[in-house]
Amino acid sequence: MRRALLAAALLAAAPAVAQEAPRAFPHVSAEADLGLYSVSTVSAPDRERRGTSVYLFGELAAGLHLAPGLSLQGVIAFEPIGEGDSTGGTPNDGVTLFRRQSAFLEALFVEWKPTDGLTLYGGRFVAPFGRGHHDFPGILTRVRAHEVQMIGDSLGLGGTWTFLSDPRFGEHDISLAAFTLDRTALSSTWMTRRRCCDERYERYDRNTRQQGGPANTGQLDNAAIALDGDGFDWLPGFSYHLAAVTRAPGIDGTAREWGYAGALRYEQRWNRDHRTLVFAEAVQFRNAGGRPRGEIATVTTDPDTGEALDGTLETTIAERRSFTTLGVQHRYEAWRGTLAWQRDQRKRSADTLPTENYVEASVGHDLGGGFGIDIGYQWSRYVREETGRLGTAHAVLLRLGYSGGF
Question: Are 137 and 399 in contact (CB under 8 A)?
Fold first, then answer.
């Protein structure tokens, strides 16, 4: 099961070509999952949100196979790194092309398979937590999951063990990883530099201790565990994912963060041409962000004049963040149609935020040679930056993608 989740843990990055006739060592294998995205927000109460954003999002994976069972695996990720850019950004009633586009090393690790059922790895990787950020159908469903739940920039050790493989009871894997936030030069982004007065750059250089955040401790005191299963003889097409993660607070935090994830997939094949996939995933982070210290705006009343006085209060912000996805996709030959709903709920002890909701409907077609195109519509209720209240937006979505080995 874990072999299918390339971006989640990259425990077997070699593409299908590596399963053909035996090859001499060393040799290189590679595969890509990359898309050209266009998000055109045609209606929104905020002018800066309206317009069209075009950008690249996806990854290129490669493996240098040194000997049977021993390889060096790497993944280069492509995405815009401005705040909100990967889901539409702020085109400000205009058109933005590859604004704040970046490329960076998402993973680079040594992988060793001493037996068919055991994989060990060490280096920079994506922790085995959650599934939707790799394989959600649709256009922005996977991107949004990537922004909320993926545990990247992980530097450490891990492994996956297939503890049960049975035709009747299925194949089940358990994955473990111990890690810290990567502060080495490998965490730096490429193609991007912070520009004057542009506060939307969420990332533009290597990670540092001063930036804080969960897992930013310089020690292997953060861990993830995941359980995956599929291949049930009595329920073909069904798979599951259960995971938990814990991350120590960084320099700005006061409590350990805990995360939990559960995902289900079921594909019903009606005949040779028709099949339907139902997918669901729920992720929750408690003490999200490590319960960081921060300042919140306050309003008090002058006892003498009765006038309102603006001020700030330093406090810790306890947050429970829940991210839920529910969707269905139907395929007919080379055509596909997808309908998905996502909710991002952030319950805070201070500086509260309303719950965001997104509904996406899309139609796609395989063009051949690994290429495909998807066109869709998105309705969203999002938090407006100026007021902190909900606004409603409508957007037209497009993805031209390639997926496959080369």
Answer: no
